[in-house]
Design a protein that fits this description.
Strand content: 5-15%
Strand order of the largest sheet: 4-10-9-8-7-5-6
Distance between the termini: 24 Å
Radius of gyration: 23 Å
Helix content: 25-40%
Order of helices and strands: HEEEHHHEHEHEHEHEHEEHHHEEHEEH
Number of domains: 2
Largest sheet: 7 strands, mixed
CATH topology of the largest domain: Aspartate Aminotransferase, domain 2
CATH class of the largest domain: Alpha Beta
Bound molecules: pyridoxal-5'-phosphate
Shape: globular
Structural class: alpha/beta
Number of strands: 14
CATH superfamily of the largest domain: Type I PLP-dependent aspartate aminotransferase-like (Major domain)
């Protein structure tokens, strides 16, 4: 077996997501060996509290033996069958479980391999639906700036982060982005209600610009996750859904992050935001990241319309070798069983507000400019000099916070200058206190570093050793 130094060396030629190819070979990634509960352990044995739960995904926490057992049992019973012509007990059961837990009449599940393929497949389903209805001009997609929906050609086009597209191609002219409903952008003197009206007016005017007869679907995350945990003003999703209904557009709620307990409910669309969308996409917490899987759920209404108009046949020619993979489905069933048995959604309704409250205490740090979130999803935004920002300064600040926190036993992985937190749902109040205390120290040390640098001095080796 190679040593961790050799493995890190080898890893340097492996292209990771969002890798800077110019710098390929020069990365110093932390090698993680194992995990248990809310903690992971690096190759030197340091214990790190996993504040992002991997990437918003390890909802039941790391190292669950009964998950391993469920996966093992399914592999030994049956590894794989083609989902084209056969099915398995786990896939059938898991689809039924999800239909049972989903809002309204979203009773039909299409399994995919992850979140990007869930969004991609759902959007292809929207195209299919409109084609079947004879509305072939209805192709255009309206989505939000700062939204993230995946890395396939189509889901990447729908994502609203301009910087990510600078060296990559997108489907030109198909997707139109409106501003994110970010209350921080509310002009001074405008009430929240007026800001909401302005958000809705921008959706209406985008539809008018493109032409309602050409608009197929509005795609939104209930809370913009990697866009910086942007919680929309109250009533935003309901009003957007009304606009969609008025213009014969579908509403796709991208719950890749917000489902499976992150906001204290199985799905957030209805229980938190009061809407029953036409389609929900999900992944991540669907299996708590133990085995890759995604899905979209679609309403009885859409299925019935296709049946009514499809004549003898309407083939949705889209799918994956691993759609409904029995091992992933077995993991999904076990994941739900654990969440329900341990009442994790109820627990989040207690620990979520506590985490938000504790993070608010960081507002006394001069460079913390905003603390926001809901449930177990939060963002602490830092800025060196308010109002005068540039990307390099923000990146440097974020990476310092990251390094200091990690040296003290906390993974934060800031999104540029935004420390985004989405810990496993099992996190306790005590562990939240530990997370907030380290984050406070990490931000203060990063701030100090930058001040020292400005003053021409250097500061090193000041952390206590990582929690063992
Ligand atoms: C809201 C949202 N949709 C879709 C995706 C894409 O999921 P995946 O990375 O599993 O393909 C992500 C990933 O972070 C996401 O946050």
């Amino acid at each position: 077996m190679s040593t961790s130094a050799e493995l890190k060396q080898r890893d340097n030629q492996f292209i990771h997501p969002w890798d800077d190819i110019v710098k390929l070979g020069g990365n110093q990634r932390t090698l993680l060996d194992r995990g248990e509960g809310v903690y992971v352990y690096d190759s030197e044995g340091n214990r790190l509290l996993d504040a992002p739960a991997g990437m918003w995904c390890v909802n039941i926490g790391h190292g669950r033996k009964e998950m391993a057992q469920a996966v093992y049992d399914q592999i030994m019973a049956l590894t794989y069958v083609s989902p084209w012509s056969m099915t398995t007990g786990p896939a059938a059961q898991f689809a039924a479980d999800l239909a049972e837990l989903s809002p309204g009449d979203l009773n039909h599940v299409f399994f995919t391999t992850g979140g990007s393929t869930a969004v991609d497949s759902a959007l292809r389903f929207v195209q299919f639906y409109n084609n079947m209805r004879g509305k072939r001009a209805k192709k255009h997609i309206i989505a939000q700036k700062r939204g993230y929906h995946g890395s396939t050609f189509l889901s990447g086009t729908v994502s609203g982060k301009e910087r990510d597209k600078s060296n990559l191609d997108v489907v030109e002219g198909l997707v139109h982005h409106i501003e994110a409903p970010d209350l921080l952008q509310k002009p001074a003197g405008q009430s929240e209600a007026e800001f909401l009206d302005a958000c809705i007016a921008s959706l209406e005017s985008m539809i008018a610009e493109v032409g309602a007869d050409k608009c197929a679907v509005f795609v939104a995350e209930p809370i913009l996750a990697s866009g910086g945990v942007i919680v929309p003003p109250e009533g935003y999703h309901q009003r957007c859904l009304e606009v969609c209904r008025k213009h014969d557009m579908l509403y796709l709620s991208d719950e890749v992050v917000t489902a499976f307990g992150r906001l204290g409910h199985c799905f957030a669309s209805e229980d938190v935001f009061g809407i029953v969308p036409d389609i929900i996409t999900t992944a991540k917490g669907l299996t708590s990241g133990y085995i890759p899987m995604g899905a979209f759920l679609v309403s009885d209404r859409l299925i019935q319309e296709i049946k009514d108009r499809g004549g003898d046949s309407a083939v949705f020619a889209n799918g994956f070798t691993y759609s409904g993979h029995p091992v992933a489905a077995a993991a999904g069933i076990k994941n739900l069983e654990i969440m329900q048995r341990e009442k994790l959604f109820e627990q989040v309704r207690d620990t979520g507000p506590y985490m938000q409250q504790q993070l608010q205490t960081l507002r006394d740090i001069p460079i913390v400019t905003d603390v926001r979130g809901l449930g177990l999803m939060a963002c602490v935004e830092c800025e060196l000099e308010e109002g005068s920002r540039d990307l390099d300064t923000d990146l440097a600040l974020g990476s310092r916070i990251d390094r200091h926190c990690q040296a003290m036993g906390l993974i934060v992985r800031p999104l540029i200058n935004m420390c985004v937190m989405s810990p496993p749902l099992t996190i306790t109040r005590q562990q939240i206190d530990e997370m907030v205390a380290i984050l406070r120290k990490g931000i203060l040390l990063a701030m100090q570093d930058i001040e020292n640098e400005k003053a021409g001095t250097r500061s090193d080796h000041r952390h206590p050793s990582p929690a063992a």
